[in-house]
Design goal:
Helix content is about 75%, strand content about 0%. With about 675 residues, it is mainly α. It has 3 domains: about 120 residues; about 180 residues; about 325 residues, Glycerol uptake facilitator protein (Up-down Bundle).
Length: about 675
């Protein structure tokens, strides 16, 4: 029975096995060509691990190969084989048998390319492959690449193989070759090109692509012409000296370029008319297959160019490794959608940044209105809680209360503190394109200060209004009913919820995340609205036109187009604030909501219910500090998430990001008052 020491030893050996390798002496015991395919495949995999192994003690003598130790080890192996011709013949026969008995099309056609027709199908396939990798007895060269080339630098050292090494490898593969052992890789290349083109043509002529290329559909589509031209080129051996053949090659390359342009046109259409993840996935797969066709054709045509083989192998390694990554697939497919979400948020968020003193005063006035509405929201919440409803209906009414209040604030042109950062961050990120100049950087910092000032103004306005209004309502309830709306015990509990020494700041960060998430939902709903032409569906709805008339139906459709994102943002936020903690509670994670304005309103109601003695309570003073800190955390978290998403959508280098952060820090040190007060 294994003890603790034995378990530790096993765990240590398991970790070390990731990069373990066999000795060269053991590798020189080569399996016979009659051995199982799995055994021969495993020998090649172990050889690749030996070439890639860490440590340089055995290769320091090869001064010219210091950049790629794998090259030195390969030279060392070839030198040993030259001295032992019997082993060399065994290795050559093994390599030829592996090439013959493994399916090359799986590598040339499908390796590194999405094999499932849909995005979600491909995601599940990649997850399955990560959990259950293919076995080495599967007769596919793609499996050999997937199991052997797992190092980060494998593609690099294969790509950089020099002419001498490539010639030596070629000589090894064909050493002692008999007619029955020959393997014609060019036949597989030609067949792979035909298969890839059939995939490309099928995708390019599908409805999702064809409907976005009205000018080049049907027989005029470049995707339609690819197959016929490829057949002319690949019919026989390359005939590069013939003018007619050269003309076919030129036509084929022109059509491939036209296919790339068509892919760009699909992206442009998606950019203007809503982004479909499935269509983006389809187009990305097409582009990858087009690139594979170009590389295969170049290798097929220029057979005497040894470097083409190393370039092809390196590309296959890169794509096979990339195909393992679920993250990379998601990034490729969601990149355009995330940029559109950011751009839409930027359009909305630009209105929430107060640049001038006049804008600042207007922002404070709007936030005063928002604070007044939230005062009512607080008491409606107390009323719902006092009804003693079952949890389902209570949460539903809480959500409707929040969502209704947020919509009222929105359409009354008021402002709710901390709700804008998720919208204003993308607006700020739009300035990054000009931040490489001194003037652009200064403008970015100015807008950053204006944004911080706007958040300070909105929080100030909300608090200045919500606290006195809540107090007045509580006093009125006290005079009318004889008792406050909440009990002293409940009031004490509310003090505890906003204390900075409770979990208030963690809950505030979670609330900031939900604020950002609601802006993300708004962007996704807006994209869905545009993608499915819902505006036109409303505009031309027969019954709406009969009941309200053409003009009113058009206005109604335009209203929804202008407001769908804000409606989605406010409704989703209302439900997220209630059902977010509920869902996490179901998972056993205790999480609550702490929003600065809502918390301040509840705090004011609790303080009023306790009377004048509240000023003698430590919890009261801690609570004041607590809800102010809650506001800071709400803003920081929601803004940071939105700003980072905007940065990622623009692929800004890390060095440029640090330069921006440094510029903002310098302004805060030299002119901190600009965060609180507008310029004169």
């Amino acid at each position: 029975m294994l003890g603790l020491k034995g378990m530790k030893e096993l765990w240590s050996r398991w970790k070390e096995s990731r990069n373990a390798y066999q000795s060269l002496d053991r590798l020189l015991i080569v399996p016979d060509v009659s051995a199982d395919l799995a055994e021969r495949n495993r020998w090649l995999i172990e050889l690749i691990y030996w070439l890639r192994r860490k440590g340089r003690s055995d290769v320091d003598i090869f001064v010219g190969d210091t950049s790629h130790p794998e090259h030195a080890r390969l030279r060392s192996l070839l030198k040993v084989l030259e001295q032992r011709s019997d082993v060399k013949l065994q290795v050559a026969k093994l390599i030829r048998s592996v090439l013959r008995e493994n399916d090359a099309l799986s590598l040339l056609c499908d390796a590194g390319v999405a094999t499932k027709p849909s995005f979600w199908g491909e995601i599940s396939e990649r997850i399955r492959n990560r959990l259950v990798p293919p076995p080495p007895n599967k007769p596919e060269l793609a499996v050999l690449f997937a199991l052997g080339f797992v190092g980060d630098h494998d593609a690099s050292w294969v790509h950089d193989l020099d002419h001498e090494l490539l010639a030596s490898i070629h000589e090894l593969v064909h050493f002692g070759e008999e007619v029955s052992e020959s393997y014609q890789i060019f036949n597989d290349m030609a067949e792979a090109i035909h298969i890839l083109i059939s995939y490309i043509g099928s995708a390019g002529l599908s409805y999702s692509v064809r409907s976005r290329l009205r000018d080049v559909s049907g027989q005029h589509s470049p995707f339609y012409k690819l197959a016929k031209l490829a057949e002319e080129i690949l019919r026989d051996q390359p005939r590069l000296q013939e003018h007619v053949y050269q003309a076919h090659l030129k036509d084929f390359k022109d059509v491939v370029d036209a296919c790339y342009l068509a892919c760009d046109d699909v992206y442009a259409h998606l950019d203007d008319n809503g982004v479909s993840i499935e269509t983006v996935f389809q187009v990305e797969t097409m582009r990858l297959r087009l690139a594979r066709v170009e590389l295969l054709l170049k290798t097929w045509l220029e057979r005497g160019q040894a470097s083409n083989y190393s370039y092809l192998a390196a590309d296959l390694i890169l794509t096979v490794q990339g195909h393992r990554s679920v993250k990379r697939l998601a990034e490729q497919s969601f990149a355009l959608l995330s940029r559109k979400v950011v751009e839409r948020s930027a359009e909305t968020g630009d209105h929430y940044i107060a640049d001038s003193r006049q804008d600042y005063v207007a922002m404070v006035k709007k936030s005063l209105g928002g604070g007044a509405v939230i005062a009512g929201t607080v008491y409606i919440k107390f009323l719902i809680a006092s009804l003693g409803l079952v949890r389902f209906f209570e949460n539903l009414l809480f959500s409707i209360n929040y969502a209704g209040s947020f919509l009222l604030i929105q359409f009354a042109n008021f402002t709710l503190a901390t709700k804008q950062p998720a919208m204003t961050a993308p607006a700020l990120a739009q300035l990054l394109d000009q931040s490489n100049t001194e003037e652009g950087l200064k403008h970015f910092v100015d807008r950053s200060m204006a944004l911080m000032r706007s958040q300070a103004a909105s929080i100030f306005g909300n608090l200045v209004m919500v606290i006195p209004v809540v107090i007045l309502i509580q006093v009125a309830i006290l005079f009318i009913m004889g008792n406050p709306s909440i009990t002293p015990t409940k009031a004490q509990a509310i003090f505890q919820t906003v204390s900075p020494f409770s979990g208030a700041l963690i809950f505030a960060a979670f609330t900031g995340f939900l604020l950002w998430l609601s802006s993300l939902v708004a962007g996704l709903v807006d994209n869905w609205f545009v993608l499915h032409s819902v505006q036109d569906v409303i505009r031309y709805n027969r019954r709406l036109n009969l009941v309200f008339g053409d003009i009113r139906a058009a206005r109604w459709a335009q209203w929804w187009r202008d407001n769908i994102s804000v409606v989605a943002a406010n409704i989703s936020l209302g439900f997220l604030l209630i059902y977010g903690p509920t869902f996490l509670g179901f998972l056993g994670i205790g999480m609550e909501i702490r929003h600065v304005t809502l918390s301040a309103g509840q705090f004011a109601a609790a303080a009023t219910a306790l009377g004048w003695k509240v000023f003698l309570m430590t919890g009261f003073w801690l609570g004041i500090i607590g809800f102010l800190l809650i506001g800071v955390v709400n803003v920081l978290v929601s803004f940071s998430l939105a700003f980072n998403m905007a940065l990622r959508s623009r692929d800004l280098p890390l060095l440029d990001r640090r330069r921006l952060y440094a510029a903002v820090r310098d302004r805060l040190k030299t002119d901190f008052k600009s965060v609180l007060f507008p310029p004169r």
